[in-house]
Automatic annotation (TrEMBL):
SUPFAM superfamilies for this protein: Putative modulator of DNA gyrase, PmbA/TldD
UniProt cross-references to InterPro entries, sorted A to Z: Metalloprtase-TldD/E_C, Metalloprtase-TldD/E_cen_dom, Metalloprtase-TldD/E_N, PmbA, TldD/PmbA_N, TldD/PmbA_sf
Pfam families linked to this entry: PmbA_TldD_1st, PmbA_TldD_2nd, PmbA_TldD_3rd
The organism of origin for this protein: Pacificimonas flava
Name used for this protein in its record: TldE/PmbA protein
Length: 447
């Protein structure tokens, strides 16, 4: 994998090529990494893969017009050809009054925070093989499990760098390690499948293979013999496996681009969406966080922010283009790949834990459902209407009882946010996390 110095040297070279080709401004992002993965099936190693990749995305401006190209050939000739092609494309593009580089006074300067994103471990192929086999074996050892969908382990390391013609240049690297298993319970037409996984920046923070595998097996066995459910309005609990998806809908609705286009069901940047006391936080500085960073995709400083404070929105999330279109200031939430202009997104996002335990929330529910899987993408971003396929478990007389599958839940995101109650069982397992939540009065249709 390229060092930070080498990655930044490549970016400097292609920016110089863009300027020589006639670009009035340009920025470039480098994304590269290496990974080793092992997949197993029924006690045998099925596949071992080692991959290395590196790409540069170049965005050039010709006055008020811009274009983006991507390349993986870093030779001087390839860079010069890509830069010339990008400038020609930009000159032929439609004018854009809002896109552009950040002014120098907005660029991140203090990049010294140690976020501890790389554990520095060499890839351990024998260790990954053993971990993958042990994870699958633990899952297959759970009573009721009849077959395997496979298991695996992976170690990876990646580097991202960004440079602009107006003086920003920085890079960051991080490691990632993961374990997973998927198994099947039952036979014939009465089979169920589920999985479990663990992913962390540092190998030392991973759950054990036995823990991950056993959880996969227990989840799968618990899904056997689903019960019928009577349709109606009832409380719906979202297990942490799926509750974080609700935050995804919130973030999409408050992105500056959606607001500028008029394609969001929200129109008030200080709306009281949730009950008092509820908070949603974005923390790019969390040590070992899955998406921790000191600068965003446009070179602005990434800072912690309360997205929702005391139940109320604190404003939109904006990159430079959407901020200019809305006449507001960018918020340092630009995200960038190699194949297009910056978008908008969060770093380490979470819904703060509530005061009630998960068990208390279930006990208070009386009769309802708790969901562990959502299916489909039936969410209307313009109206907030929400309809998803789902599976999970019945809650009867305040206790989790029988599994349910092939049900449909429906509501409207505004109403859902307003009636949302978080439990206290928040854990930081992913880039976006939420505890168990309960939403009262959703419509549930039985399968």
């Amino acid at each position: 994998m390229l060092s930070h110095a080498d990655a930044l040297a490549h970016l400097d070279q292609i920016l110089n090529a863009a300027t020589a080709a006639g670009a009035t401004d340009a920025d470039a992002v480098f994304v590269g990494g290496e990974a080793v993965s092992v997949s197993v099936l029924k006690g045998d190693v099925e596949d071992i893969t080692r991959s290395e990749d590196a790409e540069i995305g170049l965005r050039v401006f010709a006055g008020d017009r811009n274009a983006t190209v991507a390349l993986s050939d870093f030779s001087r000739a390839a860079m010069e050809e890509a830069a010339s092609r990008a400038v020609a494309m930009a000159r032929a593009a439609t004018a854009d009054d809002y896109a552009g580089l950040a002014s120098r006074d907005l660029l991140a300067e203090d990049l010294s925070a140690d976020l501890d994103l790389d554990d520095g471990r060499d890839f351990d192929l024998p260790g990954l093989q053993q971990a993958a086999l042990s994870t699958e074996a633990a899952a297959l050892g759970v009573t009721g499990i009849t077959n395997s969908g496979g298991g695996g382990a992976q170690s990876a390391r990646s580097t991202t760098a960004l440079a602009t013609t107006n003086g920003f240049a920085a890079a960051r690297s991080g490691s990632n390690h993961a374990l997973y298993a998927s198994v099947i319970a039952g036979t014939g037409t009465k089979m169920e499948r589920d999985y479990a996984q663990s992913s962390q920046r540092h190998m030392a923070d991973l759950e054990s293979a036995e823990t991950v595998g056993r959880r996969a097996g227990e989840r799968t066995a618990a899904r056997m013999d689903p019960a019928a459910i009577k349709s109606g309005r009832m409380p719906v609990l979202f297990d942490p496996r799926v509750s974080a998806s609700l935050l995804g809908h919130l973030i999409a609705a408050i992105s500056g681009a959606a607001i500028a286009r008029g394609t969001s069901f929200l129109d008030d940047p200080q709306a009281q969406l949730f009950a008092a006391g509820i908070e949603v936080l974005d923390d790019p500085h969390r040590p070992r966080g899955h998406r921790s960073r000191t600068f965003d995709g446009e070179g602005l400083p990434a800072r912690p922010r309360k997205i929702v404070e005391d139940g109320r929105l604190t404003g939109w999330l904006m990159n430079i283009a959407s901020a200019r279109q809305l006449g507001l200031a960018p918020t340092g939430h630009a995200v960038r790949g190699v194949s297009g202009p910056p978008g908008t997104g969060t770093s380490n996002l979470h819904l703060a834990a509530g005061s009630k335990s998960r068990q208390d929330l279930i006990a208070e529910t009386g009769n309802g459902v708790i969901l562990t899987e959502l299916i489909g993408q039936g969410v209307n971003a313009v109206t907030g209407d929400y309809s998803r396929g789902a599976s999970g478990f019945l809650i009867e007389n305040g206790e989790i009882t029988r599994p349910v599958s092939e049900i449909t839940i429906a509501g409207n995101l505004k109403d859902m946010f307003a009636s949302l109650t978080p439990a206290s069982d928040l854990e930081f397992r992913h880039a976006t996390n939420a505890p168990t939540v309960r939403i009262d009065g959703m419509t549930v249709a039985g399968g």
